[in-house]
Amino acid sequence: MTASSTTCEKYRLQLYREGSVSYEKIAGCKIGRAGGGGQIHAAERLSAVEALFHSSWTGSGSTPFIVDIQPPRQALYDAIRAAKEIPLQTLFRHYPTLAVWTVLYPLSHNYGVSTKDVYLHISAFVGENFDDVAARDQLKHHFRTAARSLGLPVSGNHPTALFFAPLGPAMSQHDDLARAFVGGALYLGSPAIEDTSAARNWQRRVVKERCPNLTRLREAIFFDTSAHCARRFEAWRQGAEALSEAEAHLFAAYDRATRLHGRTRRDLVGLPRLFWFGDRLGLQVEASRQLQSIQFGAFPTQVLGGQRIRVPAPWPDRVTWRAGIVQQEIPFAPAADEVLIFDADSGSFLSRIPPEDSDFEAAAEHFVVLSRSAFTSPSFGDAIPTADPMVMAAWISRGETLTFPERGSLTISAPREAAVWIDGSVLGRDGSRALYACDGTLLITIDPEIGGRARIVRARTGDETRFISIEVGADGDARLPFSQMGFDQPGSPSEVTFELLAPGAAGDPDARAELSTTSWIWPGVSAPERDLTDVAIPANLDPARSAGLRILDGLVSVDPRSDVEVPILGLSGPGRVHEFHLVARSEKLWHCRILQGDRVFVPRGATVTLGYDNRHDTFLLRSPDRESSLLVFGHERRRPFLQRQTIEISAAELESTDCGDDRIAIRRANGRIELLARLRRTDDPAEIAVEESEDEITLSIVPQQKYDALRVRVEPLSSKPFEGEYAFGRNPTALPPIAGITATSDYHTGKLTVRFVRDTLPAPARVLFSLRSLSEDLSPLLDANDAPIVLGLAGAPASLDLSTLVRLASFLADPEPESLSGQLGTALAPAYRSIFAVVGASRTVGSIKPVLNIVRPDGQPPRNDLIGVAPWIFEAPATAFSGLKEDSGLSALARMGDIEPPEPLPPLEGDTPLADWLIRVGSDTSLPAGLGVDALQHAFRALRFRVGDTDLHALVGDGPIAGATKLICGAHIEGLDQIRSFDNNGGGDPLPARIAAQVERFARACAAHRATDYIDDIVFRTGLPREEVGRALTMMLRAGIEFFVYFRALWAHVIQQHLITT
Question: What domain of life does the UniProt record list for this protein's source (predicted)?
């Protein structure tokens, strides 16, 4: 047809629909003739009939059964006349909708009236003879081709499947269909019409089980791949009006079937639906005004319509459900050799697989599988016990085959029939509803031979409707990212229904949907790597139904300090408020304090001090990483988060060990360890505690001496120090209090509490404290170990210059009280890093040499980090370190240039370079000065002196620095026995040798200019913060500086020679 004739056809059809031109005028010519006088060419008239029939079949309110279309009376008359006057083969070739309707129309009205011969009815209607087999085969071939091109899923050669299935349920079988559907709703629950695959499976199951001998009815229901029958049954159950005379007849059959069961439509409440949440089975009750209860123990539990309940373990095989006068036993936990399958994204129940089934098709990507018998899967391995130890579970993906010892294997495969489903990142769950991020994908699979490869997807969101054209591949599959439908643009979370329209539905916004699936999507919000942070507040957010969130300045985030285990996002939806439990995307640790009866959030990497009163305390840990393992004091619990996101760390697991490991940490599947917290047991009577929030810092301590006033000294990084005093007795203070700092004292307990308001104080800064005695003498505020109490105020430095860096390094050079869990270093470390990055941008030692020259007033070794913040310092040649003060502890680095290379140089390519060299040292007497036995023995003597008689004793004590040292040095050392052989009187104490070996490894890395990689590897292995690793290694370097000089010179000679030769 030409473009002009197509335009005329659309115009005339529009005029007819609007009533401007009667269909009689359009069709007012005899078929096969064309002439003037206002007559219209027959081809154009038939094209108008074809277009009208097709739009009626695909339009709003239509059904997948083509004989259900209801054209205007004159259009119907004209179609019948065309069927009688035009050869059927011509209709098939040019007007497929009209041709398919022509074959099915007489069967729908006359079959069984006078004869059950299919071909006689068709022959009588179209006036053609189909007595011989060839004519019948040709008819079936043309019909099958035309029907499949339109989108009718017909197949085979038998008349029942080919001709009767597309007719839909016959009116004579409406009572049978009604008994099947009503009985299925009573004993299986109502169909989940929001999921085409689930609803299609429901209607097929109830008809197959309750009408096993009605072949024609079964074929019609199996033909209905869009689950139209189930959708209209649910519409009847909800009180909708019938759309046609045939549907009114079917609705009346539903009413009769309901009365046969002694019910009314109001009594027909759907059964509770099974769902999976975390590590437990639950039931979701249908929203209804009927009073409902569920009994899974000794007594029934009354539930509200729409409520979700999680059933405690052990799970019964069946539970009793009551709704009004109805009482019914419904299956719950898997029976013997039975398998339950859930959608892992939404938690919705998919199917209960009997032992004889070996294959299950599912329109989903990820699954949770439950069984009472043990089983294995390729990706998950052996199934693990759930909250009910008698039920095993595994998390698998589509395409896997499960192996059972007591039943046949089960394969989870992609649907072979047409289906749509979602593959995306789940942000939260509300029962069996999932809230997806905007970066998900709609998956579509169809038969491209039925209706063609080009289709239209419609997305309905409230009053907004979006359309997009797609073309499936040769295999019938298509992937449609949410972004292509505009869901990557910011918006409020809403329920979205994706519909695949019937073939040929272009141009009709209300066209019939063949397939559909419904879920919630948050437009513009991608799946975050961590918990939800700083997202624009949704317009439909319900704060009263939310929990664990922080709403500030128009943004909503998961509150990391909230004591809520699972944050809840309350969203207003059509008819109700949905409470989406947000999926954890990061670890969160709480300290459960038994004595206080509360729990407090533990910031990542914090040190928690536990005194005698905390001996029964526990910890609660939430993690989304199912493959990770938990480390508590060096003891490993493998994959504890497979079933649940939250686990308890008991008091028994927190008992002190001798291994020196004080970590609560997570080991990722790739081996990386991430530190969550460090624990320190103490009997400090000072009861020191520091609590930090976004707004303030609170220090509480019970001083061990009497006092009547407190002096606070604030030393800002970039301005002059200032002081303030707080009196608690009769004597007045010499200084006014400081704005932003308050101090109180408890008269009965002596506890001193100091609060700092962050916004009103300069930062970065160091805060020191002094107590004034009754005799008005000032003395530093000390902990039980006589360490001065010092706090840090975090902030961005005003200037990034060398003098500021030196001042900040001097703050960090002093020891911190262990009881404060490294608060000073944690607060000032970001500023230290940022200034070091600017001042040391040239990576020359000269630019930061004053930092290396820092000397503590008491003459002890400085504790500020050098290796972690700037490992490149120690890759420099010996000349760079000339001129360092002797008191700095680093002046020995200049002597690296005095050590001559040995002949021959040791190889560096072997697996044990240190051990091989130490063996040679023990036997080779011709080594240059500085590389012989005496050099190593002297290095050990100096190391033992420093860790025994200086402030570097913290490396081998029992505090957090010693814990970090043991973790860093705890890896296997090849050649440990050889290096210990140079440590005279070192029996029973291998730690100094381990420190020496660690210094040697760092020296070798520096010689190869890979010091940064070396630090990264230790952080990966231990999970300790980079600052803590750097501080511990810097202190080890100061303790064993002779080892570093020895091996840095040795390996530098080796690497230099290697570069020359290669």
Answer: Bacteria
pLDDT per residue over 389-422, tens digit each?
A: 899 998 899 899 999 988 889 999 988 888 999 9
Residue type (1 letter), 1006: C
Both tokens of 605, joined, read 């990497």
Kindly give the pairing relationship between strand 308-310 and strand 301-303. unpaired
**The sheet that has 419-423: what strands, in order across it?**
419-423, 441-445, 477-481
DSSP state of 173: G
- For residue 656, the model assigns a pLDDT of 66
Instruction: Count CA atoms closer than 13 A to 881's CA, side-chain side.
Output: 20
Mean pLDDT, rounded, for 556-567: 82
Q: Is the pLDDT reported for residue 901 higher than 70?
A: yes
Q: Which structure tokens are listed for 999?
A: 């210094």
992 to 175, 383, 624, 977, 1040: CA distances (angstroms):
89, 46, 40, 12, 9
For residue 716, whether the previous peptide bond is cis, meaning omega lies within 30 degrees of 0, is: no
Give residue 1005's pLDDT: 94
Cα distance between residue 605 and residue 822, in whole Å? 10
DSSP letter (8 states) at residue 971: S
Q: What is the pLDDT of residues 186-212, one digit of tens each?
A: 877 788 887 888 888 899 999 999 999
Question: In this structure, what token pair is assigned to residue 910?
Answer: 């072997």
What is the C-alpha to C-alpha distance for residues 1024 and 1027, in angstroms, rounded to an integer? Answer: 8
- Residue 597's φ and ψ, nearest 5 degrees, are 70, 30
**Separation of CA 981 from chain center:** 52
On whether the CB atoms of residues 377 and 397 are closer than 8 A, the answer is no
104 near 154, Cβ under 8 Å? no
Q: How many CB atoms lie within 10 A of CB 783?
A: 20
Dihedral angle over CA of 881, 1013, 679, 813, nearest 10: 20
Closest CA to 337 of 348, 324, 351, 353: 353
Give the contacts of 14 (CB within 8 A, at least 6 positions apart): none
Which candidate, 440, 393, 379, places its Cα nearest to that of 669? 379
- Give the helix/strand (H/E) hosting 535: strand 535-536
> Is 58 in contact with 99 (CB distance < 8 Å)?
no
What is residue 107's three-state secondary structure?
helix
CA dist., res. 170 & res. 193, Å (int) = 23
Residue 357 structure tokens: 């089934």
The position carrying tokens 């004591």 is 563
Q: What's 546's DSSP letter?
A: -
The closest of 114, 34, 111, 24 to 74, measured between CA atoms, is 24
The CA distance from 712 to 846, in Å, is 37
- In sequence order, what are the beta bridge partners of 606? 677
The Cα 706–Cα 810 span in angstroms is: 31
Structure tokens at 844: 């020359």
Per DSSP, 525 falls in state: -
Q: For residue range 52-99, what is the model confidence (pLDDT) as tens digits?
A: 888 888 888 788 888 888 888 888 888 888 888 888 888 998 899 999
- Torsion sign (Cα): 884, 885, 890, 892: positive
Our CA angle for 36, 41, 47, nearest 5°, is: 155
In angstroms, the CA 234 to CA 575 distance is 18
- What pLDDT score does 40 carry? 45
Give backbone dihedrals phi and psi of 273, rounded to 5 degrees, phi first: -100, 135
Side-chain half-sphere exposure of 728, counting CA atoms within 13 A:
22
Q: Whole-number mean pLDDT of the chain?
A: 86
* Alpha-carbon distance values, 1060 to 387, 876, 928, 952 (Å): 65, 19, 21, 40
- Whole-Å CA distances, 140 to 67, 103, 155, 165, 762: 18, 10, 10, 14, 88
Q: Which has the higher per-residue pLDDT, 427 or 297? A: 427
d(CA 309, CA 281): 9
Q: Kindly state the helix (H) or strand (E) to which residue 372 belongs, with its residue range.
A: none
- Taking the C-alpha atoms of residue 296 and residue 301, their distance in angstroms, rounded to an integer, is 8
